Amino acid sequence: MHMTFRWYGEGNDKVTLGQIKQIPGVEGIVWSLHDMPAGELWSEERINKEKTLIEAAGFNIDVVESVNVHEDIKLGLPSRDVYIDNYKETLRRLAKAGVKVVCYNFMPVFDWTRTELFHPLPDGSNALFFEKSRIENIDPLALIETLSRNVDVTMPGWEPDRLAKLKQTFKQYENFTAEDLWANLGYFLKQVIPVCEEVGIKMGIHPDDPAFPIFGLPRIITNKENIDRFLKLVDSPYNGLSLCTGSLGSANNDLPDIIDTFADRIHFIHIRNIKRFENGDFIETSHRACDGSVDTVKVIKTLHKHHFQGYVRPDHGRHIWGEENWARPGYGLYDRALGIMYILGVWDSLP
């Protein structure tokens, strides 16, 4: 298992590479060109600039999260081939720089959805929160306005260029079905995976977050059955998973069973814990198994049983010790560092 830490880049992340360096066990930085609009071709100059910066701090650049998929590809529009060609060339350039895994998702419109960014927890910390009844009764534009009001950073999946076209995008998804999305995902993979096989990059799809439909939009990477269907779209070891325990945990999936079944196709894993409530709400918690609904200890033990040699990172942490005043929502320093120590502590204790 190779421990990594997600970082949003110089000038875009108040957590520094120097701070990350002080967390024991971190080998690599999970990075991206976060200002790059979906569908754009990544330049070798930009890729190498990021590579130089990260490697100078003593980390590898093996994992990129994400090379975003343009909405026209998800919608299956005639323009998709141009964006797929850009995607393929970007993969070639990333491989040339030494990247080994690319995490991406195929969620319509939103990469992730919460109703509150700093919901208070009983211990005085706060965390990302999903209130199901509110999602069912709010206009997505109103939700975006509320969440973006006091956040001075660009949140992945909610980039300004994407949000500016939100009304138009929702109009395009009218009468769009899950089967339409499956067909367009298959088309994308059949174009991209041969390039991955050629250059040695493994693609890992991120599960839908949350793992059920919202705002009338289809979600398809949500459970074991659908993961199996996805992997069979292009049955190649380069077509795999970025398994996220929190995303799949939002729908009460059996995560150890999913790992047992698809272990050889998991290239990257996000470990986080959430607490689910009977009414469908959920909130991020600490990484400890006893603090949430995801048995993180059993997840780590199952990975160890399969001699997992892929990449792992702590996912969304709580905001603790006042870091809600400066941290990117869900991506502070302290709780993710604690999460790494918990994950490695369990791993190191196993024979």
List the helices and strands and how they pair.
Layout: E1 2-6, H1 17-21, E2 26-30, H2 44-56, E3 63-65, H3 71-75, H4 80-97, E4 101-104, E5 116-120, E6 126-130, H5 132-136, H6 140-148, H7 160-163, H8 166-172, H9 178-199, E7 202-205, H10 224-233, E8 239-244, H11 245-249, H12 255-262, E9 266-271, E10 274-276, E11 282-284, H13 296-305, E12 311-314, H14 334-349
Parallel strand pairs: 1-2, 1-12, 3-4, 4-7, 7-8, 8-9, 9-12
Antiparallel strand pairs: 5-6, 6-11, 10-11
Describe the structure in your own words.
It is a single chain. With about 350 residues, this protein is α/β, with parallel strands linked by helices. The protein is built from 14 helices and 12 strands. The strands form 2 sheets. An 8-stranded parallel β-sheet has the order 2-1-12-9-8-7-4-3. The protein has a 4-stranded antiparallel β-sheet with strand order 5-6-11-10. Helix 4 runs parallel beside helix 9 (about 180-200). The mean pLDDT is about 95. It comes from Vibrio tritonius. Catalyzes the dehydration of D-mannonate. Belongs to the mannonate dehydratase family.
